[in-house]
What does this fold into?
Amino acid sequence: MFEQMRDPESVRMAAFTAENPDDRTAFDVHMAKVRTSPEVTTRAVTVDGRLVGSIASFVVDGDTEVTYWIDRPFWGQGIAGRALALLLESVRVRPCSPAPRVTM
It folds into this structure.
C-alpha cells in the first residue's frame, strides 16, 4: 500500500494525501493509528489474490465518511465500486435525510 500511495498521478488526484508520500515512517505510524481506531473500518482490496488497494470508513465530526485507494493499473475496472458495495455490507451507518420542510 505504501508504494501505491506514492504514485504521483494518484497523489495528484487524491483529495487527501500524506504531507510527504515518500516518508515510510509517517505512513507506518498513520496506518497503525488507522488499524487501531474503533471509528475506522478498513479493508484490503484484492483482485485474484493480489493487493490492489484499500477502502475504509471513518468518522469526522460525527459524520461517517468513505475513502479508497486503488492502484492505478486497476482504475476503470469497477473495482472501487465493488469494494464500496462490500464495505457497505459491513458498515451499516447511513447518512440521515433531512426532515422534510413543510410550507403553507
Summary: The longest strand covers residues 50-60. The first helix runs from residue 8 to 13. The mean pLDDT is 86.
